[in-house]
Each structure stands twice: as C-alpha cells, then as structure tokens.
Amino acid sequence: MDEKLEISKNEKAPPDISEIDNLSEKGLNNDARPPKFRKSPEEAKLVRKINFALMPLICSCLFIQFIDKSTLSYASVMGLYEDTGMFIFFYLMSLNDEFHFLIKSYRIEIGISQNQFSWLGSIFYVGYLAFQVPNNFLLQKFPLSHYLGSILIIWGACLGCTALANDFSSLAGLRFLLGFWEGSTYPSIFLLLSTLYRRSEQSIWFGVLYICNAVSIAVGGFIGYGIGYMDGMRGISAWKYAMIIWGSLTALLGVAFFFFLPDKPKSRWFRLTSNEEKLVDDRTLDNAVVQSRKFKKEHIYEALREPRLYCYMLISLFLNLQNGTMTIFSNQFIVDMGFTRLESVLLNIPNGASIIILLSILIFLSQKYNDVAYCGAAFSIVSMIGALLLCVIPSGGPKLIGLYLSATSPPGAMLNTSISHNVAGYTKKFFYNGVNMIFYCIGNFVGPLMMAQSTAPRYIPGMAAYVVADFLAALLFLYLRWSYKRENVRRQKLIEDGNVPPPAKNREELDLTDKEDIYFQYRL
Question: Any transmembrane segments, and where (predicted)?
Fold first, then answer.
C-alpha cells in the first residue's frame, strides 16, 4: 500500500480538499457530519440508468426471497399439520375455553408439535449460517450475476421439492437446504449496493429492500388467500401448491439474474458514455468500495480489533430474536386472537402495510436529517413498544396493534445502512456483512425457540426478552453515533492542522480501509 500512496508518511503538506468528495470545501459542519451531496443533472441521469437496470431485479429477488422463507407461516394454516402428522397442536390451540381440559390431557403431544414447528422455523437459519463462510469466499471469486442466478435456481428447486415432504424430518431437511442457499442473498445484495451507490443514496435503497419484504407480506397475504381456495384441487393441499408456485417463480428469476444482472460499476447493462464512466470513478471514491478479487487478511485483523464490529453483532442479534419469531408465528398469533385460519392470512396484509409505512417514515427522517443512528435507535424503541403490547394485552383485536408495531425491519435497515456507510475496504466490508449475517442467523434461530408452549398464548417470558433486546439495540445505536462523531472530530482537527499528508491522486483505486484513509468521514 505504501508505494501506491506516492507520498511520504512524514510529509505534512496541506490536503487538496477539492479532491475529497467526503468533505465540503470548508470542512465538516459543527456536528462532525459530512454535508449532503448535490447531484449534477448528468449524475442524476446516470443514477436513473443504474436504478432502471438494477433495482427491478434486486427488488424482485428480495420480494420472492421473503415469501419463500415465510411460506412456512402460511403453510401452518393451509393443511401442513394434517399432512405431516403435526395437527394435534394446531387443532387444540384453536379450541375455546370449554375444551382446555383436553389441552392439559394432551400436553405431551402439544409440546412435541410446538417444538417441531419452532425447529422448522429455526433450522432454516442453521442452513443460512452454514453458508456464510463459503459465501464470503465465493463472493470474491465469481461474477455476482452468475453466482446469484445459479443459487436462485437451486433454492427454487429446494422450495418446490418441499411439497413432497410428508413428515417432520423431510420438512426439516428441506428447510435447512432452503436456508443454506438463501444465505447468499443479503450479503451479495448489500455488497452490490455498496459498490454501485454513493453513501448518501444507500439509506434510501436499504430502506427499499426492507419495504420489498413488507410488500411481500401484504401481497403474499392476497396471493396466499387465493392459494388457500386451491386446497384439494387434484388431491393436493393448498400449502403444497404454495411451495410449487413460489419455487417455480424463484427458479425463473434465477435465469433472469444469470443473464441480466449488472454486477459491476461499469456493467454493459448501464450503457455508459465516456463522461458517465468518469462519474462512476468519482462515485467509487465516495462509497469507498473498490471491487477486488484479492482476499486481504489484514482487513480482517483490522476489523476484529474494532469495538464497533461487536456493536453491530449485538444489534443484529438483539433485533433478530424478535424478527425470527414474528416471521414464523405471525399467523398463529392472529389465530390465537380469535380469528379463523384464512382470516389470519388476510390480516397479515395490514401487517405488511404497517411495515411499509414505518419504513417510509424512517427513510424520510433519515434523509431529511442526514442521520442513521438516531433513526435506528428511535425505531428500535417502536419495535420494543410492539413487543410490550403483545405481552400486556390479553387477547382480541387490539392485540393486533402490538403485532403491527413489532417488526424490527426498520432498525434493521438502519443497521445495514450504517455498515455500508462506515466500512471501507472490499475484504473488510464483506467481512462486516458476513459477521452481521451470522448474528442475523443466530438471532432468527434462537428467537422462535424462546416461544415455550408452557407460556402460551401470551408467551410473556419470550416477549419480555424481546423488549429488553430492543432497548439494548437502541443504546448500541447511540453508542455508535457517539463513537463516529468523536472520530470525525479527531480527523477534522488533524486535517486542519496539516498533520496528515494530502490524499493520493489514485486514491479511488487503492482499496483502502476506513482506518487507513484519514480522509474517510464516517456518516452518523
């Protein structure tokens, strides 16, 4: 690295601020926060090209990925229990108060069935976790279009084959494989967005990714309701139709990804002019992600010594304890409130709509105030309030408010935005993303297992744990903001005092980490 910098470490010439995209001409503002960037008309046109070529595919992938992994929730009210021998639990849970003696009489069978369903939710994330290490390696070895396209085809086949499962063990095996192949999705897409978009643009698109998940809840509810009426057609249960339909659509999307996904800043699908190629170079300097096929161990060692890595790990863990449970158990929660099975599918539609509203408010506030950490902390508290309402409201329709507020995807969007904004160096960035996904998996794995049958129907111990976890996540967001602000102030003073050498002319090509590049400014 030293020879590439083309300068001496001891040189103290003042920096050429005009070459530094991260700083304004007068330095940082009083809050140690980089100013908002204003696009030229030419760059706005370039961004539209990128959006048009890239985001329909990305949004389709996130939409279908969320539906694929949450088909288990719909399947639970579409005949899954009856077809796989786990029907005792769901039947007894639907009985009213006058049959409670039956529940007590069948407590052993109920416990087994509850544990089985919880494990079906959790084992998906065992597969997800198992793929993180090879995924991080493979991401640097193959073009993303071919890599993700092939994996989409394989996981579509796994989902379709789930329709053939007839017992718990076959369901568990296929859920593990589904999670294994889906484990490539988020790290790949996060890295791609970090590569193609300026940091000031990324909070919008990370929010949009989570909106795609919310849309899949709402639209999936409509489609799931329709699939529910296919039950018994040609002797096939509705839940099997759901697996076949979504598995086939996933495989078709994989073919589109393989051939048409733009996977690098100067992809032929963007149809760049010579001037636009220069703009791409400038954008690469801003987002501090230089695509590289070289694995750099020193980036990993640097990351492991940073306290903020462990903050991100804990935030991911705390938020996804609740996320795993809400994804798998939402339909059963609604049935327990006194609604029918098909009504529970329909009532997931306003659940998705509420998440879209929350995410839209989040994106607006984050862009308006140019802040990520405060928004992450605030919406962690909103999720906490949702879990608290589920805990304290005994039953009935009003409990739906708690369900609709309990989604942790809004603060989750801010978590991933913060990582994307504040980690530079290609190997270091995908290591941070990989570690984030590992704890995403652990949280989603442990969360459903906290729903002990003995605590049904309100699951107070589990819900209380989610309340505490959300509160701790909010505190960690605030700590990260304080830490980044302090470092920005330190760097600003070094630059103003002329205690650092000027930036290298080829700075955008060096693949420097945020620690190595003193001119890199953290976004709060």
Answer: 73-95, 116-134, 146-165, 204-227, 239-261, 309-333, 345-365, 372-395, 401-419, 431-451, 463-482
Domain that holds residue 252: 11-34+57-263+273-509
Alpha-carbon dihedral sign for residues 223, 225, 231, 237: positive
- The CA angle 437-442-443, to the nearest 5 degrees, is 95
Residue 39 inside a domain? The answer is no
- Please name which of 401, 403, 340, 346 lies closest in space to residue 96, comparing C-alpha atoms: 340
Beta carbons of 46 and 276 less than 8 angstroms apart: yes
- 521 found inside a domain: no
Q: Model confidence at 111, in pLDDT bands (50, 70, 90)?
A: very low
| CA 473 from centroid of its chain's CA atoms | 16
Distance (Å, whole) CA 169 – CA 78: 19
Cα distance between the two ends of the chain: 28
Q: What is the CATH number of the domain that holds 371?
A: 1.20.1250.20
Place of tokens 């229990």: 81
| Contact assessment for residue 33 and residue 488, using Cβ atoms and an 8 Å cutoff | yes
Distance of CA 2 to the CA centre of its chain: 36
Separation between Cα atoms, residue 361 and residue 411, nearest integer Å: 12
Provide the domain count of the chain: 1
Q: What is the pLDDT of residue 34?
A: 54
513 close to 300: Cβ distance less than 8 angstroms: no
Q: Please, are residues 400 and 368 in contact by the beta-carbon 8 Å criterion?
A: no
- E strands, 105-165, in order: none
Kindly state the DSSP code that residue 32 receives in the 8-state scheme.
S
Q: What is the 3-state secondary structure (H, E, C) of 447-515?
A: HHHCCCHHHCCCCHHHHHHHHHHHHHHHHHHHHHHHHHHHHHHHHHHHHHCCCCCCCCCCHHHCCCCCC
Tokens at residue 35, please?
């100013």
Q: Provide mean pLDDT across the span 469-491.
A: 94
Q: 3-state class of 27 per DSSP? A: strand
Q: Report the distance separating Cα 225 and Cα 238, nearest Å.
A: 10
Give the bridge partners for 24, in sequence order: 27
pLDDT by residue (tens digit) across 324-354?
A: 788 777 777 777 777 777 777 777 788 888 8
Contact criterion met (CB below 8 Å) for 324 and 121:
yes
Q: How far apart are CA 522 and CA 306, in angstroms?
A: 14
Average pLDDT over residues 172-198: 86
Q: Nearest CA to 130 among 412, 409, 442?
A: 442
